[in-house]
Amino acid sequence: MSGDSKVKTTESTPPAPTKARKWLPVLDPSGDYYYWWLNTMVFPIMYNLIIVVCRACFPDLQHSYLVAWFVLDYTSDLLYLLDIGVHFHTGFLEQGILVVDKGMIASRYVRTWSFLLDLASLVPTDAAYVQLGPHIPTLRLNRFLRVPRLFEAFDRTETRTAYPNAFRIAKLMLYIFVVIHWNSCLYFALSRYLGFGRDAWVYPDPAQPGFERLRRQYLYSFYFSTLILTTVGDTPLPAREEEYLFMVGDFLLAVMGFATIMGSMSSVIYNMNTADAAFYPDHALVKKYMKLQHVNRKLERRVIDWYQHLQINKKMTNEVAILQHLPERLRAEVAVSVHLSTLSRVQIFQNCEASLLEELVLKLQPQTYSPGEYVCRKGDIGREMYIIREGQLAVVADDGVTQYAVLGAGLYFGEISIINIKGNMSGNRRTANIKSLGYSDLFCLSKEDLREVLSEYPQAQAVMEEKGREILLKMNKLDVNAEAAEIALQEATESRLKGLDQQLDDLQTKFARLLAELESSALKIAYRIERLEWQTREWPMPEDVGEADDEAEPGEGTSKDGDGKAGQEGPSGIE
Hints:
There is one protein chain. The protein is of the alpha+beta class. The strands form three sheets. Strands 3-10-5-8 form a four-stranded antiparallel β-sheet. It has a four-stranded antiparallel β-sheet with strand order 4-9-6-7, with no helix packed on it. A two-stranded antiparallel sheet has the order 1-2. 62% of the residues lie in helices and 7% in strands. It is built from 21 helices and ten strands.
């Protein structure tokens, strides 16, 4: 046993990190450091995607800023090299646990396509500058192989940003710009190949005033490519086969681009509508229902104003449905961070267990009331309590005009009605009229939800009932005699229940004995029947007796017809 325990301890304990490796920690792929490194890698990748092609197609750009291009090129190469090192220090999940062993990380990374692409993107192809000259940036096209890292950065940002739909639109616009940029560079390169100014389709002759400037060359090419890819028209007709092929390829690219744009925008709009439907109730169905049922205009206006208030002020009434896909513990943590401070203001919930408050927080239902709307009326049955989150409510008389008190944010009411306190003179009825003065946001906690939670916390239930009695005593609404009578009645009821339980146990015991006796009698009867069956099997059947008589008759005739000896044996034998 000791040997086994030693082996298990050795296998489960990870090796301690050495001092030499502490300065290079393992990154969590879902952590902040890894996320910001991905955002850093966006810049060198976008630089190679945009600038390298532009330098290859616009020679003036390459020649004018050669030193700057060298600095930027090798800075991006350095970042590419560091990115490979980051890969070797980025953990991965195995059975839900982050693997931090660098040997396992390296072994896993070198077996992926990502490692091969990363190595290919760092092949020093620009070493050919020594023989071909430094003005051939197309030697660096292998840097495009690091594009998957760009997509990974975009995916992480889309997950983390608070405005995913806006980011999707911005990402789509960036893709469109890159496509038009590449197409404009290819158009200028094709124009230079065919000859500037040879026909109306190619770029005009740079000898013309204004067309020799680099900025004009790029802007003209970008504008021409935009016209083609957007199929706006108003472009010169192609005159050569190369120009026709270029136009056909651009038209096909434009069709695919339009399909992509329409699909992406439709997805964004659908997601926005879905998010609105999840956060806010659908008012179109309610409006149609009121129109079909001919609801009066005043009430219809109130309903529309209520929906408009929710939309403008970003009020949510279905938090449970929004958070339903989160794990239970995570959903509880989110609800606690949002609502625990509000719930802890309620006097009867103060000094309760933290786990009880967490359970109650999940039961809170947000509600929004319009100006002049009654939250409760005097005499109503109290099935829930309310906590004021925002707004003002008035305690009014029966006429609805006279105000006795004004309740503000952080106050609560109706808490006594949801706790069955013995001797409560008001019972479970509301004792006041509560009306919303403006738009008010309240949290509602129902009696059923509270009872369900308190069933698991009997001590907390006793504490809350005691606090409720103290509140009723201060309000002079606790009948002590009735409470004592109710307690005595409850004790008598419990005593009777205990007696009934005891009688039920006795009946069960007697019934069990009867069942045992019945089973014993049944076994005895079955045994006796089996013995009788074995005894009757030895008795001769009537058919067997008849056959024996038939066989005896021929023997008697023979004895009479014989010499008399046989006939004499019968009587002598009988005698």
